[in-house]
């Protein structure tokens, strides 16, 4: 009954989805590509036997890339069906395709769209990355006898409460999963409470990522040429850039009136600030924000051989986080200064970039705790405290060097999830 009501609501919302996609395509043309796929209509001929991986957005696609590399080693003849929900995910996923692979949009979760998807592709197995639970899609796969696993699975306490409030809808969906491979024991316990079969804890795939060495070399060379320390606001979410810029404004005003204490050798205005927004559609808005706050700006998209001089550098490129972490002396973790759960701090650690985290890290709760315990990161109460901590580290180079050195050791100690998950996929296929 409840799934029928849910299905009706989504069916009625289908025209609104089309309109939303048209609007988003004005800023991000990727949303205007192959729209009929969202409703289960495809240009490819019907087929079968796919290993289907669903990675909704950019972060999930990067995690899927790590798993996919392990799967290709274990099953070199596999045929990949890759689905996404966002334009950034789809763009990132294009680099993962080989001859014979197929990439389409995730079907809108109406019975008709998901049934057309399942009939058209007839996957051997479905692998949903991290959090993607869709009631009709899972029901259609279960009815067709297609095993579906949740890989690199996580579930925050907030999401568990939401699932429990909608248990009549969510419980059958979680229960339809054939396997659950959780990042942490805490995630496993919450997933079990949500209605899954007992999960296996295989670790976080993102520990298995290797930073781009060429980007690291370039970033470090640019850092040495900057002439002053570089602090990065990494994968910033809306509101966080303004937090930082507003604080720097007040700091600059105070600094003009009151000399800095003699013990503080490096102040906030002695730092080269670098901001990398999480979402590319916000690059222009953040550039305008920086200039509206009275700071000079230089954008990565305009750099040739090295960054130009400016108060603030803007990292307006995709796929270059290793370059930005190499360029930075230390980083502030985006998504953790608003109640958004934080972004991926594992990549920063692997790059040897010490990290200052805000109070909200539930998306990477265990990784954040482990990084803090290893000395690769520290946690503060808010943006002013983060800037103060950054300056404290910059004024204690030996302490900062120790935190930076702890990062790669911490990241390397938790590798292995990719191989374990690939073996679990093979076991599920053989079951």
Provide a brief overview of the structure.
This protein is of the alpha/beta class and 431 residues long. The chain is built from 17 helices and 14 strands. The protein folds into 2 domains: 19-203 and 416-430, 3-Layer(aba) Sandwich (Rossmann fold), CATH 3.40.50.11720; 213-412, Glycogen Phosphorylase B (Rossmann fold).
Which CATH class of the largest domain is shown? Alpha Beta
CATH topology of the largest domain: Rossmann fold
**Considering DSSP H and I runs of 4 or more, what fraction of the residues is helical?**
40-55%
CATH homologous group name of the largest domain: 3-Deoxy-D-manno-octulosonic-acid transferase, N-terminal domain
Give me the side-by-side strand order of the main sheet. 3-2-1-4-5-6-7
Number of H- or I-type helical stretches: 17
Oligomeric form: single chain
- What is the averaged pLDDT score? 94
Radius of gyration: 23 Å
Shape summary: globular
* Range of strand content: 5-15%
Poorly predicted runs: none
**Total domain count:** 2
């Amino acid at each position: 009954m409840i799934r029928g009501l849910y299905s009706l609501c989504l069916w009625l919302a289908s025209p609104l989805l089309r309109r939303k996609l048209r609007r988003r395509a004005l800023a991000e043309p990727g949303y205007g590509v192959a729209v009929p796929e969202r409703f289960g209509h495809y240009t490819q001929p019907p087929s079968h036997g796919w290993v289907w991986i669903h990675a909704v957005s950019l972060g999930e696609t990067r995690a899927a890339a790590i798993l996919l590399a392990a799967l290709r080693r274990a099953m070199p003849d596999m045929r990949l069906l890759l689905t996404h929900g966002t334009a950034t995910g789809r763009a990132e996923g294009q680099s993962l395709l080989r001859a014979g692979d197929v990439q389409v949009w995730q079907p809108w979760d109406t019975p008709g769209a998901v049934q057309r998807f399942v009939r058209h592709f007839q996957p051997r197995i479905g692998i949903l990355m991290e959090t993607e639970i869709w009631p009709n899609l899972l029901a259609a796969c279960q009815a067709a006898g297609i095993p579906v696993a949740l890989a690199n699975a996580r579930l925050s306490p907030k999401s568990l409460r939401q699932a429990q409030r909608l248990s009549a809808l969510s419980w059958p969906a979680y229960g339809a999963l054939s396997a659950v491979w959780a990042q942490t024991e805490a995630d496993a316990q919450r997933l079990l409470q949500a209605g899954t079969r007992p999960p296996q804890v295989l670790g976080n795939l993102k520990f298995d990522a290797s930073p781009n060495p060429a980007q690291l070399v370039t970033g470090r060379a640019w850092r040495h040429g900057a002439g002053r320390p570089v602090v990065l606001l990494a994968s910033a979410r809306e509101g966080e850039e303004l937090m930082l810029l507003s604080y720097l404004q007040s700091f600059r005003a105070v600094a003009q009136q009151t000399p800095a204490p003699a013990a503080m050798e490096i102040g906030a205005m002695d730092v080269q600030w670098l901001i990398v927004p999480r979402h590319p559609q916000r690059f222009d808005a953040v550039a305008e924000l920086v200039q509206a706050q009275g700071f000079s700006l230089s954008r990565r998209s305009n750099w040739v051989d090295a960054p130009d001089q400016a108060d603030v550098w803007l990292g307006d490129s995709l796929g270059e986080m290793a370059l930005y972490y190499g360029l930075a002396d230390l980083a502030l973790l985006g998504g953790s200064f608003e109640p958004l759960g934080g972004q991926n701090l594992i990549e920063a650690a692997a790059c040897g970039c010490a990290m200052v985290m805000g109070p909200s890290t539930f998306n990477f709760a265990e990784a954040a705790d482990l990084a803090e315990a290893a000395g690769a990161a520290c946690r503060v109460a808010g943006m002013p405290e983060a800037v103060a901590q950054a300056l404290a580290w910059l004024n204690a180079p030996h302490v900062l060097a120790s935190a930076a050195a702890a990062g790669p050791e911490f990241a390397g100690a938790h590798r292995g999830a990719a191989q374990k998950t690939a073996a679990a996929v093979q076991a599920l296929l053989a079951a």
